[in-house]
């Protein structure tokens, strides 16, 4: 049985591959099937990542195998709003337990000395440290005006609360914005 895991995840292809590898390992261990491909959808207007797909071949078409796959996906961490899809037979199973937070760093409206003296990697490290145990950094996107950092975890509200003190104190975080993405 061939399935598509439509991920409500904003993952660069290299980060989607990490998830594909984790899923492949789980499928092999459980003798359920294999990952056969994947892709990343970008917004035609901005080029920002919108979602990802991972193609999966299950070794059989038993409902127990599909149910086991859903259980395993939720264990490894899939964002809410994702779905496991099949066309024959027609299947759509909502999956995902994680919530997503996108932090958009303003790349054009701050003084040059801020961009020269601040480091986006410091932002990622400090936010991930603040979210310890409730969320973590998964991927990013760099546009002409904004750089987006994508975090997924157990609670958007908690992740946002945890990073707010750092945002208020670090110059590169001025004029930024936060959006819930899952």
Given the structure, what is the number of helices?
5
For the largest sheet, list the strands in their spatial order.
2-3-1-4-5
Instruction: Work out the radius of gyration.
Output: 18 Å
Give the termini separation: 28 Å
Q: How large is the share of residues in beta strands?
A: 35-45%
Low-confidence stretches: none
What kind of assembly state do the chains in view correspond to?
Answer: single chain
Order of helices and strands: EHEEHEEEHHEEHE
**Nearest-integer average pLDDT:** 94
Largest sheet descriptor: 5 strands, antiparallel
Q: Tally the beta strands.
A: 9
Helix-strand category: alpha+beta
Overall shape: it is elongated
Helix content: 25-40%
Please write out the topology:
Elements: E1 2-7, H1 13-29, E2 33-42, E3 49-58, H2 63-76, E4 82-87, E5 90-95, E6 99-106, H3 112-117, H4 120-130, E7 135-142, E8 146-153, H5 156-169, E9 177-180
Helix pairs in contact: 1-2, 4-5
Which descriptors would you attach to this protein?
4-stranded antiparallel sheet; 182 residues; alpha+beta; elongated; 5 helices; 5-stranded antiparallel sheet
Structure report:
The protein is α+β, with helices and mostly antiparallel strands. It is 34% helix and 36% strand. The protein has five helices and nine strands. A five-stranded antiparallel β-sheet has the order 2-3-1-4-5, covered by helices on one side. A hairpin with a 3-residue loop joins strand 7 and strand 8. Helix 1 packs across helix 2 and helix 4 crosses helix 5. It is elongated and about 60 Å long.
């Amino acid at each position: 049985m061939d399935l598509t895991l439509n991920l409500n995840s904003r993952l660069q292809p290299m980060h989607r591959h990490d998830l594909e590898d984790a899923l492949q390992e789980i499928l092999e261990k459980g003798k359920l099937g294999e990952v056969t491909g994947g892709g990343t959808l970008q917004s035609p207007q901005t080029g920002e990542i919108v979602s990802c797909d991972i193609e999966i071949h299950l070794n059989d078409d038993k409902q127990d195998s599909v149910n086991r796959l859903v259980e395993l996906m939720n264990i490894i961490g899939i964002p809410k709003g994702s779905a496991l899809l099949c066309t024959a037979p027609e299947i759509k199973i909502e999956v995902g337990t994680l919530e997503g937070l996108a932090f958009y760093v303003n790349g054009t409206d701050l003084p040059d000395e801020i961009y020269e003296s601040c480091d986006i990697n410091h932002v990622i490290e400090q936010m991930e440290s603040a979210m310890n145990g409730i969320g973590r950094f998964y991927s990013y996107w760099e546009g002409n005006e904004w750089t987006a950092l994508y975090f997924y975890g157990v609670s958007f509200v908690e992740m946002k609360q945890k990073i707010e003190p750092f945002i208020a104190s670090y110059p590169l975080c001025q004029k930024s914005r936060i959006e819930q993405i899952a």
